[in-house]
Design a protein that fits this description.
single chain, 0% strand, mainly alpha, 54% helix
Amino acid sequence: MKAREFDAAFDSNEVDIVDQLDLSRARRPGRDVQRVNVDFPTWMVSSLDAEASRLGITRQAVIKTWIAERLDRAAQ
């Protein structure tokens, strides 16, 4: 399907264009993952684990959430 035909199908909303896409390689910009290693003192890991347990999420989720919140505040 040519780009002009694809655009027309999208604009007309008559055809489900998702069937025309190859989603096997689809990526969200800026969402690539890069692994990093960080060393924390034992007391900090214990505190993170306690907070993760309280929230019912993983230690990694706590760390990522807190860092994201801090970066959002710093950007404002």
